[in-house]
Amino acid sequence: MPNVVILAEKPSQAKAYAEAFTVQEKTKTYIQLKPDETFPNGATITWGVGHLVELKEPHDYKPEWKRWKLEQLPIVPDRFHEKVSKGKWEQFQAVKKLFQQADVIVNAADVDREGSNIFYSILRLTGVKGKPVQRLWINSLEKDEVRKGFKNLRDNEKDLRLFDEAKARQISDWLVGINASRLFTLLLQKKGFESHLSIGRVQSPTVYLIYQRHKEIENFVSEPFYQIEGLFKAEKGTYKGLAKIKDKDKAKVQALMDQHGLKEKEDLTGNVQKVDKKTKYQKSPKLHSLSTLQSVANRRWKYNPSQVLKTVQKLYEKRLVTYPRTDCNYITENEFAYVVNNVKGYQEALNVSFTPVSLKPNKRYVNGSKVQEHYAIIPTKSVPTQKKLSGLSRDEQNIYNEILATTLSMFHTDYIYEETTLYTHVHDLPFKSTGKREVSQGWKELFPKPSKSKDGKEALLPEVQQGEEVGARVGIKESMTQPPKPYTEGQLINMMKTCGKLMDDETDVEILKEVEGLGTEATRSSIIETIKAQKYIEVKKNNVYVTAKGIMLCEAIEGTLLSSPSLTAKWEAYLRKIGNGEGSKQVFLKQTGQFIEKLIQETPGSIKDVQVRSTGEKTKKNWNEPIAKCPRCSTGSIMDRYKFYACSAYKEGCKVSFPKRLAGKSLTNNMIKTLCEKKRTKVLKGFKGKKPFSTALMLDEEYKIKFDFQNKS
Predict the structure, then answer these.
(1) In this protein, which residues make up the domain named Topo IA-type catalytic (predicted)?
(2) Which domains can be identified in the chain, with CATH numbers?
(3) Residue range 321-336, pLDDT digits in tens
(4) Counting beta carbons within 10 angstroms of the beta carbon of residue 258, is it exposed (0 to 12), middle (13 to 18) or buried (19 or more)?
């Protein structure tokens, strides 16, 4: 009988698999299952700890690659190898031993290309070869689904292609990250930059999207515009209306007033010429993908995308919701069948009650042709007890209720409202007024009421009759054009997903539409967290702002593929070919190498005009190290004292010090070193007076820095 070893991606996943069977033994590194119908000889479940292995670092290939030097670029190993991730040696050794003893190995990592990458990277590093590998492919950790999945294991043909696709992506991201980060950092450090830049295929264009919005806001010039507004007094209440004119030229608006004999603040009479009422029906929202859930949770509770993913992952591991890392808004008829059976139970869990309009599948939500690897996030068959619900954290309750309400809403009635449009004529000039009245809440009753109603923007109109005479006062209303608003974190997730709309190349647009933009459902939240950690962006009151460091990064990469989602489009187009067996990993890596060569050749010329900005960070190598010998006492050294430079022999009486900034320009370590050693610098750009100016710097007899306008060399 075969010895079956199952590799889960992480311990919580392994625990969920084990709970679908009978456990014989639990240890620190594996779980032994008792023999049963699925595994007649029993089985062993072991696990990774996320990424149990990782690609080697540059210095693991060559010690000299540890130091950042321009002449070493490009860094391209002949062959790429993995190593065991830090702190995970014990678990790796346990997995290796179990793989060596196995007759059949089952890949039960997450069902996506990264899950394939994690499994095969571990398998490759163990050195175990020639053993049959099968694939578990499920969307839920419910016991029934787990048992069904293990009874219907797939072969690994598709899995191997996904591994090739994922490895090509991983190695290429490594090559771009390692080489581009060093290239841009070292070239900017030559110009006085005192920190380092981290550059990546997905994170850099994401920062650039935020930078573009920053530029739109910064360059926006608010301008006045004018309209004619009427205030009307009907028998049953007052209301406002606007004439059909909106112009920057106040004279044109005044001319229309004059043409109709209208004067401001004059009591006039209007006539209601038309009352147009339309009943509108709004269907319930589509089922949730991860990004729509992140977007709604950010809008409703200000949760950041990473927080939402962590929370829904916990709910998945508690077997309350289906697989979270999905980009699909549809389910198949199989899932719909169990959802229908559980409608009453779901209503009790959400503490609501309504009679379903229909229990038949609707193509808006149930469409098997739209489902590929994963379906939408919905509740599992397990309807939680009130006790289990009360044991959830506040975040978990909010997210679970949102998924529950969205799923139940497909059985509810439409949201119905009445839209009213009035046309009131004053001296033959028509004024339009619009209003909205709720007729039936329908599916909206399942969701928490928004704290600030969007409907508040549309005035509630009084009941008026066609032909009714109303009191009227008209006047010119002045308003100002408004700049675009910064993205919220929820909007940024959507922006990353739909950024293809901004591209000019139609092929890129189509590919980005297919692959859904920058990153994946699984990685977008971690990308946002990465660029926060790199200090490229900051979030204030849920709004995302680019920092000085982020602006400098964007100015440096402007005009290159690193600033554009096009690189992702081009990569994903070919990566898909690899996954489908139509492309080659070797060809893809060769193209990546050519891209890096081109970048190394072109970047020195393209960043000449980039303005180096102070980011408030320090490179470790410069901090607390002597910059130069003191030009006065020769016994001390000039040191960086955080807010200024000064001689280390100040206790012995040497008072030499230099400012960090002079006339709006940062003075770098290199500039100070040149002044100490040569008493003069070359001509430097970027000083600010009434106008920007350039000058050399010199040290005078009292060791003070002066401008040297005579030195033109």
Answers:
(1) 159-600
(2) 4-52+88-155 (3.40.50.140), 172-218+486-606 (1.10.460.10), 224-275+417-440+447-480 (2.70.20.10), 290-411 (1.10.290.10), 628-708 (no CATH)
(3) 999 988 899 999 989 9
(4) exposed
